[in-house]
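User: Quick one: structure for sequence A, then sequence B.

Assistant: Sequence A:
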Amino acid sequence: MHYGRLLRGRRRWWIVGALAVLVIAVAGALASGPSPPRTITIATGQHGGMYEQFGAAYEARLERIGLRARLVPTSGSVDNLRRLLRGEVDVAFVQGGTYPLVADPEGRIRGIAAVYYEPLWVFHGGGPALRSLSELAGRRMAIGLPASGTEAIASALLRAHGIDPAARNIERLPNEMARERLEQGRLEAAFFVTSYGDPVVLGLLGRPDLQLLSFDRDGAYTRKFPALTPLKLAEGTLDLRRNLPAEDVTLLAPAALLVCRSTLHPRVVEELLKVAQALHGPGSLIDPPLRFPSREGLDIPLHEAADVYLTHGQAALSRMLPYAVLRWTLVVRVLVISLLIWIPLVRFVPALHGWRIDRRFHRLYASLRDVDRRLTAARDPGEVEAGLAALDRLCLESQPLCDKMPDARQRDVYDWRMHAAFVRAQAAARLAALETGEAAWMRGAGSELPARHG
């Protein structure tokens, strides 16, 4: 008996364990979705450029919240977009207007926000200031590295002015090299797309032998090139002491964009936007305060998390919990959903088991009632004995149920046995009464027979 109960106990634990595994599996399916990553990869740009500087600032701020950023130097915007398509990086800085230069039919690249203006600076040497890019025809010039945003915008503008960007006099050089050759007189012009804070720009603006081209027909340019925004740079804006620039100029500026892979975790997108707000929100000498981060100037389909953030603000979960805790949200979701499933299950399974036991006892009592009625209606000992035999069979059938009954339901077992014993006792008394009455009648009938026949 003890061994059988031990086996039943082990079986119950196996059932409980199997149910727990099932609940966790169901909870894991319902809480599908990866946890926020511990590390991301950010494509920046040329060494010493503003993308690299801003990348370092993002890296430092993300590190404080527990998200490690690994910076990857590249040739520039088009190179960054291609790396995103190949899955080599998670996030990248790119120049507005360069997205159409890569094929992305599956929509694997998503925009996070425009973060600041990065003007096009066209410096040239010798003689009076030029009024149009068409005057650069035949001159030796540099238009940035291959696959860079500078090369992309410079090539488009040169074509619009009838100049072939593939001509032999046009070189693809990094910014630092282009600056050196321009200062040495080995180049007659150079294109740079970068922030006003870039040392290359500030150094060239201070040279009296170099001129900065002003795009006076800004309305025409922005009509033809929607990604470009005209910026009026007043005299002395960048440096009052040195009076840089030396006169009012109009620049064309694409927006620097923060973009990512479409699969980037929404919590990472939110953290990137929080950093962008801290770095770019206050504005600068050319960026108005609170202008960035923004969806304006973004020519790439917006990431859903960025859309929600820029429209409604930060998600409540990210606002309440630090990133280090958010990384455990999947585990928390599994635990919460497991509890939500397990608690009703724990209440339902015993109730179901109890209902099954009650149902079997109801059947036993229905059968016991039928036997009791037969015994009550019996008129001779033979009928009572048949009823007692049926009661014995009923008790025998109930024995397996009584043996498997848990301790908490033993009261039902003893109630059943007491009621069966009660019916048996009544039947035994009735049988005894019927047998006594029949014996008395037989004795009475036996004593009267001789008198009748005598």
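Sequence B:
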Amino acid sequence: MDNKGINIQTPQHEKVKVIFDGEVKMVGAMGVIGNYVMIIHGGYYSVYAGLKDVFVKRGDKVSANQEIGQLMVNGEGVSELRFMIYKNSNPPTALDPQQWLRN
């Protein structure tokens, strides 16, 4: 998979939170990578992949810091979020996700 974002290793089964208010546009599965959630934030969208459990569904309105899922643990015992941000353009433009993260 071509990852235009960053991978963030966390403690096992960590909960994943939304970076900004938005609407869930898509929820799906990506084989061994796990489930993913795509959220629209006006002219941008964020993608959170590597989820074991998803707490939202398409069309849900979400708020910044709301939990949207829980990370899976891979065969090596690692939980890792694959996090991407795109500008909603044609074609979509990948952005540096680190600028959107909070401590």
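The CA atoms of residues 6 and 35 lie 16 Å apart. The domain at 6-88 is CATH 2.70.70.10 (Glucose Permease (Domain IIA)).

User: Thanks, that's what I needed.
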